[in-house]
Structures are given as C-alpha cells and as structure tokens.
TrEMBL record, chain A:
<feature type="transmembrane region" description="Helical">
    <location>
        <begin position="23"/>
        <end position="46"/>
    </location>
</feature>
<protein>
    <submittedName>
        <fullName>Iron ABC transporter permease</fullName>
    </submittedName>
</protein>
<feature type="transmembrane region" description="Helical">
    <location>
        <begin position="115"/>
        <end position="138"/>
    </location>
</feature>
<dbReference type="InterPro" id="IPR000515">
    <property type="entry name" value="MetI-like"/>
</dbReference>
<feature type="transmembrane region" description="Helical">
    <location>
        <begin position="369"/>
        <end position="391"/>
    </location>
</feature>
<feature type="transmembrane region" description="Helical">
    <location>
        <begin position="543"/>
        <end position="566"/>
    </location>
</feature>
<keyword id="KW-0997">Cell inner membrane</keyword>
<keyword id="KW-1003">Cell membrane</keyword>
<dbReference type="InterPro" id="IPR035906">
    <property type="entry name" value="MetI-like_sf"/>
</dbReference>
TrEMBL record, chain B:
<dbReference type="InterPro" id="IPR050093">
    <property type="entry name" value="ABC_SmlMolc_Importer"/>
</dbReference>
<dbReference type="InterPro" id="IPR003439">
    <property type="entry name" value="ABC_transporter-like_ATP-bd"/>
</dbReference>
<feature type="domain" description="ABC transporter">
    <location>
        <begin position="10"/>
        <end position="240"/>
    </location>
</feature>
<dbReference type="Pfam" id="PF00005">
    <property type="entry name" value="ABC_tran"/>
</dbReference>
<keyword id="KW-0813">Transport</keyword>
<dbReference type="InterPro" id="IPR017871">
    <property type="entry name" value="ABC_transporter-like_CS"/>
</dbReference>
<dbReference type="GO" id="GO:0005524">
    <property type="term" value="F:ATP binding"/>
</dbReference>
<protein>
    <submittedName>
        <fullName>ABC transporter ATP-binding protein</fullName>
    </submittedName>
</protein>
<dbReference type="InterPro" id="IPR027417">
    <property type="entry name" value="P-loop_NTPase"/>
</dbReference>
Length: 577, 362
C-alpha cells in the first residue's frame, strides 16, 4: 500500500522513501503492537525454551538438562502425575458432562434451563479458590467422610491426586458440556431420520451416526480440559500436591532460583504439550465442520420422558448440580463459619472473617482493581486495534498479529512468569531503581498479555458485525480514516469492546499462575495471591474464604454484566425491544 | 445382483394426522399403482411433506392405514418399513465417504460384505458416480450429492421410493436435467415413486399422476393434463397455471347455453349443467380482437408483458381484470396499453364449476 515503485520514479525520491517511509497511523499501530507482543510474549517464551537447552555451567547448547530431568525420579513422577491427573480430569469431567448433554439434546426435559446454568456456574469461580473448602467437605475428616464414618466407610475423594482431579473436573467440565451440546444441537434431524430410513435405530444409530457427528465437539472440549489441567498451578499448590509439573517449576524457581535449569525444562514440556494438544485438536477438527443443520431443520428429535424417567433425570441433574456447587457451598460455610474442624458443619456462624479480611486485604483488593482494570483497558485498546488491522487493512502479515496475540492461550501462566523473571531481571527500570521483573508493572503486563486473547475474540466478533458499507458511507461523506474509526467503527463496536473489557477484567482479577511468580513484595500482591497466603495457615482460612467469596462475586458480576451487554447489543442490532 | 425392483403399490386409507391440536391431514385416501411416478403437489403448509413423512414413519403417528403391497405400515418404526426416502437436504453423513454412505443401509441389513461392495458399485454406476466412491460428501457438488443420496436409498432395494422436494436445492438449469434423469432412472428401475413438490412444472413434467393438496386435504387426483384441463374446484384451477375465474349463472339460451356474469355480460358456452357457479377460462383460450364491436366482452388493455412465445395482456373488463395470452409469431404487431379491445371466447374452452365451496377441512 505504502510504496508503489513506479518505474520512472527518480532514484532520489526512492531513497528518501526508504529512509523516511511515510507510514500511515494503522501501520504504526501494527508495528507498535507487534513489538509489544514480541517483547512480552514471544521473547520471554523463546528465552525459556532456549535456556532449557542451555548448559548452566558452560553456556553451550545441550540436551543434558532433559537427561537430568528424566533421570530424576521426582520429575518422572511429576510428569506421570500431571499426565494422569489431566487424563483422569477429562474422564471425570466427561462423566459429569455426558449425561447432561445427552438429556438436554435427546429428551424434552423441563430441567434444561437448570443444565444451561450449570454450564457456567463453575466457571465463575477460579478452581483454586474452592480447593481448600472442598477439603472440608470431602477430605479425610470432611463432612462426608465424618457422616460415612458411622458405617465405617471412608472415601478418599481428596487424597493427594484425587483432590486435584475432583476440583479440576468440577471446575472444567462445562468446557465439555458446552462444546458437546453445541455439536449435538448442530446435527440436523434428517441425519438421524435418513439412518432410520435405512434400517438403523437405537444404539447402532447412536454409534454409527450421532456419536461420530458429535465427536469433534467432544474432543474439542476434552482437549481444552486436558491442557487447562495440565498447565494449572494454583489448584495443586493450594492442595499441597507438589509432585506435579507446574508446582515443581514454581518451586524450583522460587526456592533454588532463576538459574536452575529444571524450571525451564518443565516449562518447555508444558508449552510443548499445549502446542501439541492444540495442534492435535486442529488436525482432528480439520475438514470436520459437521454443523449440518438446514434452515428450518432443527436438531435431533426429542422424546418425551415418562414420569419415572423424568424423576431419574432430575436425580442425575440435581446430583451433578450439588457436586458442581459444592465448592461454592463449602466456601460460603468456611467464610461465614467460626471454627470448622472435625465436624460436618462449622460450630457457629459469624461475620468476623469478613472483618479480618477487609482489615488485612485492603491492599490486595486495591491492587487487583488496579491491575485487572488497567490490564482489561489496555487489552480492549490493543484488541480493537488488532481487529481493525486484521479485518480492515491490507497490511502485509496482519494475520500474524492475530496469531501472536492468540498464541498467549497456549502459554501456561507459570511459563510466562518464568520467562519474565529470566528476561527482565537484568533490565533496570530507569527512575524506579528496580529490575523490571520485580516492579509491579510486570504483573500488569503479564495479566494484559494473558487476557488479550479473550478481548481479541470479543472485539473481532464485534467488528465482523459492522458492515463495511457503513464505513464506506462515512468515507464518501468526507470522513477520513481516523475519523471514520472514531465516529463510526468504535461506537458500533462498543458493545463487544465492553464485553471484552468485562471478560478480561473478571478473569484477570483471579489469575494466579503467572502473578504468583512475579509478586516480589506482599504490597504488590493481588487478591488471588492474598487468598493463597491466607490459605497457608489454618487460622487464616476463614478470612481467605471471605476473600474468595469477594473474588467469586467480582467474577460472577463481571460474567453476568458481559452476558447482559452482549444480549442487549444483539437485541439492539436485530431491532428487538 | 439385481437393482430391478419388485415394485409395490401404495394404498392410503382414511388417513388423519395432527400436531397436538392442529389438524395437518384430514381424510386422505390415495391409490398409487405399482411402478407409478406419483407427485404430491401443493403450496407450503398444505401437508404434502407431512404425508410423505408419515409413509416413511416420521412425525406424529397418524390414524388410518398405509398399505404398501398388502403390508400395513402404520405403527411400524421407520427402520422396519423398507421404504426408501431421499431427503430434501440429501442428509449425507459428512463423516463417511460416498462408499460408506451408500453401504450404510446394507450394513444395517447384515448383507455379507462381498455383496455389499458389489451392490454399492452397481448403485453408484447407476447414478454415474462410481469414480467418486472414495470422496467425502463435502467434496461433491449439489447435483452429485443428490445422486449419492439416491444411490444410498435405492441400493437397499426399497418397496417404494419417496423424494422430498428433491430438486429444490439445485440451481435452475440443473433442475431440468435432474428431473429428466430422475424420471429415466425411475422408469429403468420400475420403482413406485412419490415425489413431493410445490412446483407445478416439476410435477407436470415428471408425474404419471398427481395429488393436489391444500390445507391437509387432497383436492384432486389425476394426470397433469387432466388436472389442468378439468380442475374440480377453484383451488386446483388457480394452483395449476393461470386461470380467469368468471362468476355467474348458466341458463338455457337459443340452441344451447349461456352464462350471465354477475357483471351483466352474457357469453355463449357449451354446458351440460345449469345454475350458479364459476367459469374457468385459461388465458390462451381467449382471443383479443382489435375491433371491439363484434365481441360479447369488451375491455381496455391495462398492462402488457412480452414473453417471447406469447404476449400476455391484462384487460380491464367491467369490474374485473382478465389475463389473455396471444401466441406471438415473427413480426406480428402487438397491441398497446390503453387500447379498447374485444375478447372472444371459444364455446368449448371454458370449464364450469357449479357453486359449491372448495373442499376444505372442517
């Protein structure tokens, strides 16, 4: 766009063009964003990978670190455990999700709304927040086992890895539920009817037609659950399960220091698994866009349930609902309880925990509001710019901005944290007198990079809905590009931008895995880190739970607000009132 | 292996069907002969697709009988009917290759695998797609997908073949070609076929006989020509082609009969019945005269459409408007809008429908 080398142009002019190219505002913005993403995402991650292959003594390239990693029984065990926990979480999450998806898509079930809401309730609470509280319900001396002890039964729900599996699958099963339900809904009724017409029914029909058509959705959800659990640091850390990969990486770096190569080897493995599973799910999904619904077709045919079947379905749904709500229930009991130990329920109820919490964690709350607010604001600004550049300009390589920003999804928080520590530790910030790696701004940067993909999806979707002809109309009436963006594009995108802001804010407010690596003093710590600190001592648990409730309220309010904005925006667009 | 069918006739007896409290089909009686190409024709919402789906066993269970050969299908689940259906959307399973799609029904019937292969290839070569056996459905054009859907259905050698709006997803030029191929294939197989369509041209060009449906009631059954020339009611008259409907009363006149229109004009016609009713006149059975003085009906041309083979005039006559088509020959002059013209009506060309309302559901 910028250069058009006309053959007859004088050499002198071409030279000045090369030396002082006239870039438009969008090109400058693209270069700025690319630099930012390179510096704070690509470079740190590349550094981590590079260091994993570096001999700590000689500084030469080596595979020795990987040899050391796999010759240590602790690391082999951690590797196995991470794999086992992730796989089992997929299995348990599937056990929750499959019946729910099946009931809603095959039957006329009056509790379908209940299932819909089940789909997002767990997501409003970060898994680590409920982890401790879950122990009080399901642990060895928790409510259930105390009650079961009357019959001499003890079920090790929360022992070691089981605890991580339970907490993670309760939290992440909606990913499977949402994806699987969507792909079941997208199967056209004629797909099923034509199979019946040719003689298939019952289980054979399910196995040969319905399941293969729904499988891509299931696999998409399952791979997401796998990788989220594989990368998660907060939950195992709070449950004091340290023999897994992410906690090992954290512990090596925080106890031995940033020169220890094991943290980097683990980071490499985490990133490799993330990339591998994204790539595998991409391969599985390729050419399998099975959305087969035709206009007026509607999904699979639904059958009415008999009274007995209805009761049975309700029983399953309510059981799963209770299971899914158990972290919330336990957290509330812990937050409002006095002492809760070796008894099915707390001894009494009080508001003291909230007093303690507000007295001690004002700084955490303030920090969280500042970090999450600023990060979300920067995210939507960057996301709007990226969306505009990708969808509306012809800048060469513009797609790469989208790819780079989205790649943050494949980078576990721990890895980003370690990357920042390693890359920016030697970078003294002028006037502050601290390395960038221990300045509070680095936490803000980490949150911004990690939540950018969310804001980007929202803004891209919003811009895709703005018809180009609206912009062309403005341009034909004399508005130049910047005033078209300012007066037409951004106002029309405002709903999506706002939704992106709220989503980024709510999820950034409870982020733990990157921030835990980067918090250098308690004064800089956000709320999630505060919960982690509180939960370290039994006496602090009540206040920690109170802070957890506060976090849940922030995220829940944010989610509802985002939903409300998106709905209102959609109604506005379609002209409904 | 044979793809030549032992064909069966279909007899539908007193079929009623409702969705909840909404009656969709009322008292349907139909006899379709073995080997016949039969069409269900009607506007959307007339119940034609519902009737077809009821034969295949989909949708709410109807009251009445559906006999294929001498077997009553009502009450059987779809998979026990041996009724082949091709869906409007083709419904090819996107996760299976063409070969697997076509083999599906044979696998369900537990046909030995060496025979499956043979039958699948015979069916695919019948529709000319043998070379496409390993493709996925998404790699085929609309017309090819339709042939696969057809092959998938006939390979199981069903007793009858049901086609639900089979041409509606194809573009116009392909539609004409496909309907010829469908008919040729049906003739070759000798398979009793029901074809659902809302397009009278499709029904006219393919069907041996057809049933016109409106509001869940069969209005008339017969060959395309029979239904066009001798509609039994106003709905059929209007739905098949364009018709001028003139209301009036037939009385005896010197040497024959005449109709006195409610607008006062008198036209001589031939009729064996007398009384009040409607005269159905096709546009091509009226002749426009540039000189109005000698005609029973006179009017003024209000609109003209040049269609190539013919010229269509809208003529304002008293309080109504009549459509008149004049065939067009090379360099033949056309009349102008605003011209006063006379309309001559051939005595034998009108169809008189004595006054009784169009049959409808109660």
């Amino acid at each position: 766009m910028t250069h058009q080398t006309a053959g007859a142009a004088p050499a002198r002019r071409r030279l000045t063009d090369v030396l002082f190219p006239k870039f438009s505002g969008t090109v400058l913005a693209a270069i700025f964003i690319a630099t930012l993403l390179f510096g704070f995402l690509i470079l740190p991650v590349a550094k981590v990978i590079y260091v994993a292959f570096l001999d700590p003594q000689t500084g030469g390239l080596t595979l020795q670190n990987f040899g050391d990693f796999f010759s240590s029984s602790l690391f082999r065990e951690s590797f196995y455990n991470s794999f086992y926990v992730s796989a089992m979480s997929v299995v348990v999450a599937s056990v929750f999700a499959l019946p729910l998806a099946y009931i809603t898509s095959r039957f006329e079930f009056s509790g379908s709304m209940l299932i819909q809401s089940l789909g997002f309730i767990p997501l409003i609470m970060p898994p680590f927040v409920g982890a401790i509280a879950m122990q009080l319900l399901f642990g060895r001396n928790g409510t259930f086992n105390l009650l079961l002890a009357n019959w001499g039964i003890n079920i090790p729900f929360m022992e070691g890895l089981n605890g991580v599996i339970l907490v993670q699958s309760v939290h992440y099963f909606p990913f499977i539920l949402i994806n699987l339900s969507a792909s079941l809904r997208n199967i056209d009724r004629s797909m099923e009817e034509s199979a019946q017409n040719l003689g298939a029914h019952g289980l054979r029909l399910f196995r040969r037609v319905v399941f293969p058509l729904a499988a891509p959705g299931y696999l998409a959800g399952a791979s997401l659950v796998f990788i989220k659990v594989f990368d998660d640091l907060g939950t195992p850390l709070l449950l004091n399960v340290n023999n897994m990969l992410a906690p090992q990486a954290y512990l090596r770096i925080s106890s031995i220091g940033i020169s220890d190569p094991m943290g980097y080897v683990i980071s490499f493995i985490l990133v490799a698994f993330s990339v591998f599973s994204l790539w595998a799910s991409f391969l599985l999904m390729r050419g399998k866009d099975y959305a087969t619904t035709q206009k007026g077709g509607g999904g699979l045919s639904r059958r009415k349930l008999s009274t007995r079947e209805n009761i049975f379905a309700y029983a399953i749904v309510i059981l799963i609902l209770l299971m899914v709500l158990s972290p919330h229930i336990a957290l509330a009991l812990l937050a409002f309880g006095t002492i809760w130990s070796y008894s099915p329920l707390p001894d009494g109820y009080t508001l003291d925990n909230f007093q303690t919490m507000f007295a001690q964690s004002g700084v955490y709350i303030k920090n969280t509001l500042v970090y999450a607010g600023l990060a979300a604001f920067i995210d939507v600004v960057l996301a709007t710019a990226i969306a505009y550049i990708v969808l509306r300009t012809k800048i060469i390589g513009r797609q790469w901005l989208d790819y780079m920003a989205t790649a943050a999804l494949a980078v576990p928080g721990v890895v980003l944290g370690i990357g920042y520590l390693r890359t920016f530790n030697d970078f003294e910030v002028p006037l502050v007198g601290k390395p960038l790696a221990s300045w509070w701004v680095i936490i803000l940067v980490a949150l911004t990079i990690r939540r950018l993909p969310y804001a980007l999806r929202a803004c891209t979707a919003a811009l895709q809905q703005v018809s180009i002809s609206l912009e062309e109309a403005a341009e034909s009436l004399g508005a130049d590009r910047s005033s078209t963006i300012r007066r037409i594009v951004v106002p029309l995108m405002s709903g999506g931008i706002l939704a992106g802001f709220v989503t980024s804010f709510a999820t950034a407010a409870v982020e733990l895995s990157a921030t835990i690596m980067l918090v250098s003093t308690d004064q800089d710590a956000p709320l999630a880190y505060g919960i982690y600190l509180f939960m370290q001592s039994p006496s602090g648990r009540g206040a920690g739970a109170a802070l957890g409730i506060f976090a849940v309220i922030i995220v829940a309010a944010g989610t509802l607000l985002a939903q409300y904005i998106i709905d209102r925006d959609r109604k506005h667009r379609t002209g409904e009132r | 292996m044979t793809l030549i069918q032992k064909s069966a006739g279909i007899s539908i007896q007193n079929l009623h069907l409702s969705f909840g409290n909404t009656k969709v089909l009322t008292g349907v009686n139909l006899e379709i002969k073995a080997g016949e190409f039969f069409a269900f024709l009607g506007p959307s919402g007339s119940g034609k697709s519902t009737l077809l789906r009821a034969i295949a066993g989909f949708g709410p269970r109807p009251k009445g009988k559906i006999l294929v050969g001498d077997r009553d299908l009502a009450g059987l689940p779809p998979w026990e009917r041996n009724v082949g259906m091709v869906f409007q959307s083709y419904a090819l399973w996107p996760h299976m290759s063409v070969r697997k799609n076509v083999a599906f029904g044979l696998v369900e019937k537990k046909v030995p695998s060496n025979q499956i292969n043979e039958k699948v290839e015979a069916a695919l070569s019948l529709v000319g797609l043998l070379d496409y056996a390993e493709r996925m459905p998404s790699q085929l054009s609309g017309g090819q997908q339709q042939r696969v859907a057809l092959a998938r259905t006939i390979v199981v050698e069903p007793d009858v073949l049901l086609l639900d709006e089979p041409l509606s997803n194809l573009d116009a030029s392909l539609r004409v070609q496909m309907r010829r191929e469908l008919l040729a294939l049906q003739r070759k197989l000798g398979l009793t076929t029901i074809f659902v369509t809302h397009d009278q041209e499709e029904a006219n060009t393919t069907a041996d006989r057809m049933a016109v449906l409106d509001q869940g009631v069969v209005q008339q059954i017969g060959s395309p020509q029979m239904l066009y020339d001798h509609p039994e009611n106003l709905f059929v008259a209007r739905f098949l082609g364009t018709a001028n409907i003139l209301e009036g009363e037939i009385t005896r006149a010197d040497g024959g009969a005449q109709i006195e229109l409610i607008t006062g004009e008198k036209i001589a016609i031939e009729s064996s019945v007398l009384g009040e009713g409607n005269l159905v006149l096709r546009p091509q059975n009226i002749v426009v005269r540039p000189d109005p003085s000698a005609s029973a009906l006179t009017g003024k041309i209000s609109h003209r459409e040049f269609l190539g083979a013919q010229v269509r005039y809208l003529v304002d006559v008293a309080n109504t408007q009549m459509v008149v088509d004049q065939s067009h020959a090379l360099d033949q002059p056309v009349l102008d809008v605003g011209a006063e013209v006379g309309l001559d009506i051939n005595k034998k060309s009108g169809v008189f429908l004595p006054k009784k309302e169009v049959k409808h559901a109660a």
